[in-house]
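Annotators were shown the component list below and the corresponding predicted structure, then asked to write short factual statements about the assembly.
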Amino acid sequence: MTVPSHPVVELTGVTKTYGDVAALRSADVVIRRGELLAVVGPSGSGKSTMLNIMGTLDRPSAGTVRIDGHDIDRLSDRELSALRAGTIGFVFQQFHLAPGVPALDNVADGLLYSGRTRADRRRLAERAMRRVGLGHRLYHEPHQLSGGEKQRVAIARAVLGDPPLLLADEPTGALDSRSGAVVMELLHQLHEAGTTVVVITHDRDIAASLPREVRLKDGAIEHDSAPGAALPAARLPREAVR
Ligand code: ADP
Ligand code: MG
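Structure shown to annotators:
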C-alpha cells in the first residue's frame, strides 16, 4: 500500500462562535493535494467563516486546523504568516485591487514582502498576467477593466508565488454569467496544472459542476460528496478501516 501524502487542509471538529452565534459547528473536512471542490450553502451558512479558517486568516473557537501538515495552534503569528504566504492564494468576490495602480503592479504587489526585487516581481507578474490571458492588459488600471478581467488580475496575483492551495470566496459572485464562466474555466485550468482549488459559492450549478461538493447548512456540514474524506482515519468507523 502506498502512503498517501498529508492533506493540504485538515479541519477536525472545528467550531467558530461569534457571541452566541455558531457560524461553524464541529466541521470535519480533509482536502488532499490536487482536489477541486466547492463549499456550497445559502447566505449565512458559514462558508466564509470556513474559508477564513482554512486560510488561517482566523482561528477556530474549538477544534484543530492543519495546513500542509502543520497544526496552526503550534505556530507563532510569524510562522503562520510565512506558512500562509508560501502555501495559500486568496481570491475574493470584490477583487480587492488598488485603484489607480496598473494591473501589472497590482499583481506584482502580491510579492511585496517576499524579499524579491521590484524587477523580479514585475517579471513574475507579467508571466502570471499572461497565464490568465491578460498579457494585453498589463498597464490598464482597474477602472479600465471589466469585472471578469479584474477577477482574472486578482487570480494572477493569488497564483503569483505558485501556492499549492487556492481559496476563492464567491469568485463569480460579482460577475455576469459569461465572465463568471471564464473565471471558472481559469480555475479549472489552474487545477489541471496542479493547484488544489477550493471554490466557495452559493450557486448550486457551479457547485454541481465541480468534482466534490461540501454542503453547509446553519454552520454544519450536511453533505460531503467525497465519502470518508471528511473523516480522519482515526475517526473512521471500525468496518471502514478493517
Ligand atoms: P456565508 O459566507 O455562508 O454567507 P458567513 O460565514 O459569512 O456565511 O457567516 C455565518 C454566520 O456567522 C452568519 O450568521 C454571520 O452573521 C455570522 N458571522 C460571520 N462573521 C461574523 C463576525 N465577524 N461577527 C459576528 N458574526 C459573524
Ligand atoms: Mg460569505
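Statements collected:
1. The two ends are 14 Å apart (CA to CA).
2. The longest helix spans residues 177-192.
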